[in-house]
Amino acid sequence: MSTAVATKQKNLLLSFSKLLAMLCVSPYFLGLSAAHSVTTQNTKILNTKIKPAESNFTGSINVARVGSLVDNQDGTKTDTIDSTASLSYLFAEKYKLNSIFYYNQNLNTQKGDWDDLDLSLVKKPAPLFSRLLFAPGILGVIPMAKSSYIRKEYQGGIGGVAKFSFEPRTFVGGLDFKFSLSLIKNAFKYETTLDGKPNSEYSSVQKFVASHAYKKLTTSLIFLHLNTLSFQNEIRESFIHFEEIGYDFNSRFSVAVGHANTGSALKPNGQDSNILLINENSSVVYASTTVNF
Which residues have CB under 8 Å from 81's CB, separation 6+? Predict the structure, then answer.
């Protein structure tokens, strides 16, 4: 076997072992969506629900006012307006192309910035077994945030997603459960940021959604567990969760209030869980309005 072929096979095995290490690392999340960056004020993960329409083209615009749950009077209080535009196009009757544009306006500094553009091409859900549905998809990320293309010199990412859901009326009482697993391979100009921190070569998100609908009122719980693997083989875990109550005035307009918290999934010792429902240093509350079209 030539040296070039042996080297190529070695690199392929190394990449595969990295993927296995990243997906199996967490003892706190059981089970089988991509997020290259998640911040406390980033509510786009929650507010991207688009209601069915007669047209193949659908979308929604969400505007949320986000603030810290506790003001520690130390200048770190979150006060932002987050705007999200979600656009979808259905073609060939079973493929949906989705895009999510997100803009964050910091009211403390009066500065704003886009988040990276998320793209996905997802096949229409099909029965996997019993009433469980499965929908595979392709993911893409285009750098738009200054922190991405300037500080990290991010060039974009591509990956896949597996979505699982249940047929309507599977559970009594208006309950609904969904789960997804995503993996993205990221590309950077350099393996480290401008300040020397390692960039993430791979990103994975495991997302669980539980919701309950009663007439025009919907309560939702969303939990995400995130893994990243740097070019230096450094594995990091984080989490973010949302609790929201929404009210639909009609099929076009709705409002919601909620709470979110995010942080490292593990304590500094690297073993104990650090997942908290409420944290006065990172929890935020928000109120939002959504218009569907």
Answer: 63, 64, 65, 66, 104, 105, 107
Is residue 260 within 8 Å of residue 246, measured between CB atoms? no
Whole-angstrom Cα distance, residue 214 to residue 174?
Answer: 7
The distance from CA 239 to its chain's CA centroid, rounded to whole angstroms, is: 10
Over residues 124-176, the pLDDT tens digits come to 999 998 899 999 999 999 999 999 999 999 999 999 999 999 998 899 888 99
pLDDT at residue 76, rounded to an integer: 86
3-state per-residue secondary structure call for 238-288: EEEEEEEEEEECCCCEEEEEEEEEEEECECCCCCCECCCCCCCCCCEEEEE
Q: 283: closest CA among 240, 245, 246, 244?
A: 240
> What is the amino acid identity at position 248?
D
CA angle, residues 95, 222, 122, in degrees to nearest 5 = 10
**Of 3.40.47.10, 2.40.50.1020, 3.30.10.10, 2.40.160.40, which CATH number belongs to 3-292?**
2.40.160.40
For tokens 């929604």, the residue is 60
Put simply, whether the predicted model's pTM sits higher than 0.85 gets the answer no
